[in-house]
Write a structure and sequence with these properties.
This protein has 7 helices and 20 strands. It is α+β, with helices and mostly antiparallel strands. The chain folds into 2 domains: 65 residues, no CATH class; 217 residues, Alpha-Beta Complex (Fumarylacetoacetate hydrolase, domain 2), CATH 3.90.850.10. Belongs to the FAH family.
């Protein structure tokens, strides 16, 4: 049972083992751990042995950590677009018999805590609270009954979507891949920390006291195991690949009037047993102005 945060703390950059309010820099114990989860995912370092040596370094407060990306360069980021029935209905789609899948690029991804950027070309920046699966053991044609053996851990994801561009074409790629719109992390938990397949967990998004989405992962049409099996039919899954499990109802474009994320707000995604992913919203034009001034 382990929890991790990748990032920078008082002891420098590394992979931190987390227990309650405290964290230990595993990279400072063994440099082979590196600065993201990949060496641990690939088994380059014995994790249990490493965890037993945590007292070789000073504990530091979790609040002192600045999160980074759990996997800096994942081979694939595959997302489910329609995986909760009520979300499918609010979007005006028919319930699919095969999952709606799309991919995100690495430049769209940011760590928890980093600014989530509303692009200058559209105000329609929407939120999507999601469970994210980090693949441990790779494979092709993975059976559903064996699929959960291929999970390294679970984390949080906000599938920020620029709806105006998502609907410019039947392909969702533009609206799902604006720079700095996909927060992930900060906490990664191993599967033994959660119910099997991360089932039955409360999932929520909010801005301040305003609850935007609230549901449970048991409402997913495609479970984690079924998703891994389905994706591995057409694509070889590799260690460090990311699978985003879709969002529940309550997204901004379906509200009347639509509820877009606004600069100055902080959006939070929370999943029971994992934690909170919080990111401030900034306007692209303000960010460019600030960077130019510096």
């Amino acid at each position: 049972m382990m929890r991790f945060i990748v990032g920078t703390g008082l002891s420098g950059q590394g992979v931190f083992l987390v227990d309650g309010e405290w964290a230990w820099n595993l990279t400072a114990i063994d440099g082979r751990v590196g600065t993201d989860l990949r060496p641990l995912i690939e088994g380059s370092v014995d994790l249990n042995s490493l965890a037993g040596q945590k007292n070789k370094v000073d504990a530091e407060p979790v609040t002192s950590l600045t999160p980074g990306l759990p996997v800096i360069r994942p081979g694939k980021i595959i997302c489910l677009g329609l995986n909760y029935v009520d979300h499918i209905k609010e979007g005006g789609y028919d319930v699919p018999v095969y999952p709606a899948l799309f991919m995100r690029c690495t430049t769209s991804m940011i760590p928890a805590g980093a600014p989530m950027v509303r692009p200058s070309c559209s105000e329609q920046l929407d939120y999507e609270a999601e469970l994210m699966v980090i693949i441990g053991k790779g494979g092709k044609h993975i059976s559903e009954k064996d699929a959960l053996d291929h999970v390294f851990g679970y984390t949080l994801f906000n599938d920020g979507s620029v709806r105006e561009y998502q609907r410019k074409t039947h392909q969702w790629t533009p609206g799902k891949n604006f720079d700095a719109t996909g927060p992930i992390g900060p906490v990664i938990v191993t599967p033994d920390e959660l119910p099997e397949g991360a089932d039955g967990l409360k999932i929520e998004s909010r801005v301040g006291t305003e609850i935007l989405q609230s549901a449970t992962t048991s409402d997913m049409l495609w479970s984690v195991a079924r998703t891994i099996a389905t994706v591995s039919e057409f694509s070889t899954l590799e260690p460090g690949d990311l699978l985003a499990m879709g969002t529940p109802p309550g997204v901004g474009h379906a509200k009347k009037p639509p509820r877009w994320l606004r600069p100055g707000e902080t959006v939070e995604v929370e999943i029971e047993g994992i934690g909170i992913c919080a990111n401030p919203i900034v306007a692209e034009e303000d960010q460019v102005t600030t960077e130019a001034a510096e």
